[in-house]
Amino acid sequence: MIEKSNCQHIGVITKAHGVSGEVVIRLNNGIDAQDITCDFLFLDLDGGLVPFYVQESRTRGDGALMVHFDGITTEVAARRLADVPVWVEGDELEMDEEGIHSSMLIGFLVVDSEHGELGKIIEIRDPERNPYFVIEGGAGEILVPVADEYIDGLDDDKHILYITAPEGLIDLYL
Asked: Which residue intervals define the domain RimM N-terminal in the entry (predicted)?
């Protein structure tokens, strides 16, 4: 059995699409449909992760993932999967050079080189492929672009992301 601790939650099936068993998966913020290239997705059914073979997948215009699972051939069967969480094995997402996917940073404390602790990353938004961290802290909500040039380092054990925000950006929120 696949353990959730070895997997990453990527989204939720929202509904059936069409009459041939295809489903729509709303992906979590920070996860791009193009990053999901695995043959199997794991559905959280009755408290356990059940593998489903991906027969075909495509990206919808709004960034959702359309998937046709092997064995799900009718609209009725697809509708039964609505609201089911979807997972991938931990190493299935496309990662950057350091082996990190930005969605793995949710919950990390962000420390800026000039302003110190900003707060924790609560979400990663991707408006039209220009992702940014949503940081919640003492100054309220702070938005910082997800870009290598602003990231100084990462302490994975302590869950801390070190950044140097663009000049003047943090001052806009203070």
From this structure: 10-89
